Amino acid sequence: MKYLVASCAFLVALPAAADFDAASYPPNETCALCHGLFGQSRTAKFPHLAGQKPAYLRAQLDAFLAGERSNDGGQMVSIVTELKPEDFDVVVRWFSKQDPPSSSVAPADNIGKKLTTEAGCLDCHSGGGAEDVPHLTAQHVGYLAKQMYDFRDGARTHSAAADLHREAFRAMGDGIDQIAAYLSSLERSP
Predict the structure, then answer these.
(1) Is residue 33 a contact partner of residue 75, using CB atoms and an 8 Å limit?
(2) What's the average pLDDT block by block, 10 residues per block, for the chain (190 residues)?
(3) H runs (alpha helix) in the chain
(4) DSSP for 133-180, written as a single string
(5) Neighbours of 173 (CB within 10 A)
(6) Which of 92, 120, 129, 164 is 20 to 30 A removed from 173 (C-alpha atoms)?
(7) pTM (2 decimals)?
(8) Three-state SS for 74?
């Protein structure tokens, strides 16, 4: 008898599920599947978007949509084509207004700080940098390192600064990991 009741309850609920309309949810919830509802992702494969500069977020969405930027597996190219053009502004506004992520634990040594200072990373990638240049502070260590290696190896080429990054990272060798750890340990300032 209990199975009959459960089956009937399922069948009664079925039409409601069939009427599910993903378009009735804010577009940022689509992005939240990977980046977290409030822009703080759980895994280094997906960057934190919380507190990121709006112009940078918009430029990246546009680059993925235009096919100028890709990522491993092509998830972003697929997702941005599902969003309407007016959704981009909603997504950008939502994530840029969220509280920035917490920083990671500071590295035990000062190698990353020294290399970051020598390379001048924070001259551009700080709160005071250009609006279309991302914050790198309080980002996943693994995500930062992967992006730097992608620039170094020519896998990330879409930005005007790609050549500059490629040359800088080629000269660093293993320093990329130390820079990523140091940047991740810094609090993000607006």
Answers:
(1) no
(2) 42 41 76 96 96 96 93 88 93 97 94 94 86 95 96 89 90 92 91
(3) 2-18, 28-35, 54-66, 75-82, 85-96, 111-119, 121-124, 141-153, 162-170, 175-184
(4) S---TT--HHHHHHHHHHHHHTS---STTHHHHHHHHHTTTTHHHHHH
(5) 9
(6) 129
(7) 0.84
(8) helix
Residue 157's contacts (CB-CB under 8 Å, 6 or more residues apart) are none
Q: Which one-letter amino acid corresponds to residue 68?
A: E
> In this structure, are residues 178 and 115 in contact, taking their beta carbons and an 8 Å threshold?
yes
- Report CA-CA distances (Å) from 164 to 5, 132, 160: 66, 16, 8
How far is it, in rounded angstroms, from Cα 158 to Cα 86?
23
Do the Cβ atoms of 103 and 189 come closer than 8 Å?
A: no
- AA letter at 146: K
Domains and CATH numbers, the chain: 2-184 (1.10.760.10)
